[in-house]
Every structure is written in structure tokens, then in C-alpha cells.
Amino acid sequence: MRKSYKKFMVKELEFISSTKQTIKGREWKDESRKEYKGIVQIVHGMQEHIGRYEDFATFLAKQGYIVVAHDQLGHGKTAKQKNEYGFFAPKNGWQYLVDDVHLLYKQEKEKYPEIPYFIFGHSMGSLIVRTYLIRYQDKLEGAILSGTSGQKSLLRTGILLTKLLKVFKGQKYKSELMEYLVTGSFNRKFKPNETNVDWISRDKDTIQFYLKDEDNGKKFTLQAYEDLLKGTLFLSKQKNINKTQDIPIVLFSGDKDPVGENAKGVIRVYHMLEKANLQDVTIRLFKDGRHEMLHEINKEEVYRFILNWIEKRIKVL
């Protein structure tokens, strides 16, 4: 299926996951162009889908970039095929998420072998990208990490709890307790609250669009939470971070993002990457911004910041 938006096209794509499932995705590009500046691959966050990146992808496409993204296992159109929202795989789910990032990269790189390639990850997607940069050595010109987490405490406790609950409830059970423990505290930092997701953005329209979209907020299964916590634990260890591919990396976040502990966690990740002796690591904190800077009241400023960062890295190639 193709949708025309003036000069550029939005095309549906798909590939076969490491789990043998069909992964649904999308490509945005201006087909009137003879050459493209680069490719940006987007890895979305927890309990959302690639449709939420339409505005950002359109912005980049108009600037001469090809943008690709996929609905990850347990999310969006990929999950809808078998109604498996919030479930990655019976085991090794985190590794499958990481492998799928590589599979889409490989598919796009074969089509556009000479174009500079950047990868963007938001929230859980940023954790997946960080793991990908450790597990794979794909040729990349840079990585953009949005709303990442530097969580270190209580990860092992959370993993033990999910394993215990699975014994009694099964791996596909969706636990209110785990939802509360992982994300329940985020909204308490913002008062008065109008919704249960005020923590994602100050923009009221963003909040309403999020709540009205039935593909958002799908609860995770116990197995998915175990996978997420194990992935986060892996990234909490400096010995693993030391294996990160040495490419330009930028971290950005709102300084009121509870996922990043109001910037403390993001700064922690920045220092870990510095300690790994990476040559080009940048951090940007946006004043009063919450979790989703791409959907904040100053999103145009954020878009421009990302574009400028990418284009500066292309110039030095």
C-alpha cells in the first residue's frame, strides 16, 4: 500500500523476524529526488507503534532522508496479526528484538549500500539500540538515543518477581502489579494530573491522541517484562557498555523525564559511554521536557536539533 503526500511516498514494508513472524514496517521518502542524504532507521518505544512517528519521519523525508521503521514484536500491526500484544517470544525475547533491528538494517542497506545510515531509538527502543550497538558491528554513521534509561536498582528483584508470577500465572499473563512497579510511579511526579499519561508530554493534544489510539498502552505480559528487565540489567554493566561500537552517539531527553530519573539516568548512561572511550558522544537535556521530546510543545526545536546533529556527522564523512 502506498500513500502520497505531495512529493514523497509512504510505503508499507515487511520482513521475516528471527522468530519467523512477519514484521510490519513502513518507509518514508521523497521519490522525486535523485539522491538521498541518508537513511534513518527508527526503533519505537514500549507499548506504542511506528504510526506515532509519522510527523517526525515526514520532516526528515522532506529534508532528503529515507526513513524506515518497524512495529516490533508485541506491538502495532506486527502484534495485530495474531493478537499477541505485549508478547515477544517464549524465550530470548530481548535478543529477537535486537536481531530484528539488524534484519531491517540489512534489508535497507542492500537497497541503498552507499547512503549514510543512522539509527534512532526512543525509550525501550533506545535500550534495544544500545544493545544492538554492542551485539552487532553494522556499518553506521551514528546513533540517536531518545528518552533512554540508566536504571540500575531493583532489576534483579523485578526479574525474580516475574519468574515467580509466571509459575502461578503463566508467561502470557498481564500483571497489574508489574505495570505498577515498572511505570506506575511516573505520573506521580506531575500534579495535578488530568490523565494517567501526563508524564509523556506537556502537550495536551499529544496526550489525547495517545489515549484515543487503540494500539497504544497495550499491557506487557510477564515474559515481556522479564525480557525488558534482563535487557536493562545487561546495559547496567560497564563491561558490556565497553563493547559498544565506536560511532557518533547523541543522547537527548527532557530534564523532567521520569524514565531518565529527571536527567540523572541519562547523564549516567552518558558517562558510561564516555568511560568506554567512544570518540564522539553528545548529550542534550531540554528544559522542562518530559518523556517524549518528539511530541513535546517544542518538538520543532527538537526536530531541528536532531537534523543538525545528523548533518554535521555527514559533513565529516
TrEMBL record:
One Pfam match: Hydrolase_4
InterPro entries xref list: AB_hydrolase_fold (IPR029058), Hydrolase_4 (IPR022742), MAG_DAG_Lipase (IPR051044)
Annotated ranges, domain Serine aminopeptidase S33: 35-297
PANTHER family, per the entry: PHOSPHOLIPASE-RELATED
Protein name (Swiss-Prot/TrEMBL): Lysophospholipase
Source organism: Candidatus Merdicola faecigallinarum
Taxon lineage: Bacteria, Bacillati, Bacillota, Clostridia, Candidatus Merdicola
